[in-house]
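Format notes (please read before filing issues)

Several people have asked whether sequences and structure tokens are stored in separate files. They are not. Every record keeps both together, in the order shown below: the sequence lines, then the token lines. Line labels are part of the format and must not be stripped during preprocessing.
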Amino acid sequence: MIDLYYWPTPNGHKITIFLEEAGLDYRIHPVDISAGDQFKADFLAISPNNRMPAIIDRSPDEGSEPVSVFESGAILIYLAEKTGRYLPTELRARKTVLEWLMWQIGGLGPMAGQNHHFVQYAPESVPYAIERYVNETNRLYGVLDKQLEGKDWIAGEYSIADMATYPWTVNHQGQRQQLDDFPNLKRWFEAMRQRPAVITAYEKAAPWSQRAAVTEEGKKLLFGQTAKVNSR
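Then the structure lines:
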């Protein structure tokens, strides 16, 4: 059994997609990031960066103690290695999957995240920041489109790289991107969207999706964090 500490954000969806694809038993513990659940002591014990998702694997292997993992990329690698699925063991194929996983973690996620912030959440319009992050998101979409030329999946075979990347493209319209500009990405996006495990993963988000809208108080919690604030 996997305990998943979750909220319906792109990083949260990554993990439910894997769990559904692999058919693992799991239970969701919602972490309402607009209400400050990420700062509670029991959550910080497994996720010291006060970010979701995080997991506790209650049965990592026969007879051993539970294992906790935080950071979405680390969770995907852990689960892939646990199950022997969606991360190749052959040197070059594994290298490629990890490259594109890190591309999402270090590139698409942070840049699209800043895009979301300045387009949707900033208290005042900052045209320079909007242009900067919308353009960088566009560049990254172009990189992904080129990688997908002649391929069904990002690294050739379906993998954790696809699971990590897809949730960050779901809100492409909010990111001011048009999928018609990226035909290979669009084809891949539609294939991902239609996978039964992806459909189920997003259905699992339904109980919390309405609550996921960020309130003004939630913005203070999410965007006003400093080391001093977090130490209180």
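For reference, the curators noted about this record: The CA atoms of residues 184 and 206 lie 29 Å apart. The domain at 2-85+199-230 is CATH 3.40.30.10 (Glutaredoxin).
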